[in-house]
Amino acid sequence: MSIRLENVSYRYLEDTPMETEALSNVSLEIKDGEFVGIIGPTGSGKSTLIQHFNGLLLPSSGKVWVDGVDLTHKDTQLRKIRQKVGMVFQYPEHQLFGETVLEDVGFGPQNGGLSQEEVVERVRRALAYVGLDFEELKDQSPFELSGGQKRRVAIAGVLAMEPSVLILDEPTAGLDPKGREEILDEIRALHKERGITVILVSHSMEDVARLVDRLIVMHQGRVALDGTPVEVFRQAETLKELGLGVPQVTELMHELKAKGLAVNTDILTVEEAEEEIVRVMGGQK
Ligand code: ADP
Ligand code: MG
To answer: Using a 6 Å cutoff on CB, does residue 16 contact ligand 1?
Structure first.
């Protein structure tokens, strides 16, 4: 499934004294199967942008197409689009409501008119994707789970709709390092195994650097940079001006280079850094 925006601007509270232009002339295309990261300072328009990808917000001006369907056209059934483009909001556990995990995760498929058997199967699969056991949790109240488990159940509720595109707004916010790592691994596996398009909004340079194929940097409602993580993190100066950094390990490689070590600075992970440092040291570990 592809998503295309052309000259999209969005204004909150339009025609009031409080009007804010949250997006300004954004044009971009996300292709089927891509794994895209979106980063940018707070207030740069990330959340506003992603809500245009499934028609939760419609542009004040400009156009949005999902698989060629014009979302701004009055006859477009946005409900159908939202089934295919799944959205996990920030702190999605705040929206849990079911008495049991089964009821909560199964809500979407149930509403879509699937049989009870199919709903159960969907829930079982969705929970497995986020590393949770159906038999253990199905009858439990989602409110009695741990923070990390609640987050996963909420994500499973979106996965149970079997979307072709999965959008996640800061899915690891507020989790401990282990919980973050696990959720990101599961998202990576979903992209790899099911081939779905994933759009990940993140604060963490480290996370996006090692996960995504493409990185979009937002600044003041505009796309400031768009490229592979290596291409984007090469623009260390620009990122600094935008109030963003590069992954710590990339920063370290820049410092080593400044100290006269002939290292390649296109390094995004600790593993790559180790290999590169060993290489320039002549292979002595
Ligand atoms: P980000 O997700 O990058 O932090 P947002 O898309 O939430 O950015 O916000 C972009 C701009 O729109 C900010 O200036 C923010 O204050 C404003 N904004 C966001 N949501 C609303 C809203 N519901 N009403 C009015 N202004 C909003
Ligand atoms: Mg946001």
So the answer is: no
Tally of CB atoms within 10 A around 178:
9
Chain mean position to CA 30: 13
CA atoms of 36 and 48, how far apart (whole Å) = 16
Structure tokens at 55: 């028609």
Burial status of residue 225 (CB atoms within 10 A of its CB: 0-12, 13-18, 19 or more): buried
Q: What is the rounded average pLDDT of the residues 34-51?
A: 97
**β-pair partners for 216:** 38, 226
Q: Select from 263, 243, 245, 244 the least CA-distant residue to 253.
A: 263
Taken as a whole, the chain contains a residue count of 285
Q: Which domains does the chain have, with CATH numbers?
A: 3-246 (3.40.50.300), 247-285 (no CATH)
Report angle CA 56, 74, 197 to the nearest 5 degrees: 40
pLDDT digits (tens, 9 = 90+) for 45-61: 999 999 999 999 999 99
pLDDT in tens, 220-232: 999 999 999 999 9
Residue-wise pLDDT for 78-122, tens only, equals 999 999 999 999 999 999 999 999 999 999 999 989 999 999 999
Task: Please name the residue whose Cα sits nearest to atom 14 of ligand 1.
Answer: 43
Pocket test for ligand 1, best of 9, 21, 48 (most atoms within 8 A of CB): 48
Is residue 284 very low, low, confident or very high in pLDDT (cuts 50, 70, 90)?
A: low
Can you tell me whether residue 17 is helix, strand or coil?
Answer: coil
Ligand 1 and 42: CB distance under 6 A: yes
- Cα(171)–Cα(217) distance, integer angstroms: 18
Residue nearest to atom 21 of ligand 1 (CA): 12
Contact 86, 160 (CB under 8 A): no
Label residue 153 left, alpha or beta by phi (over 0 means left) and psi (-120 to 50 means alpha): alpha
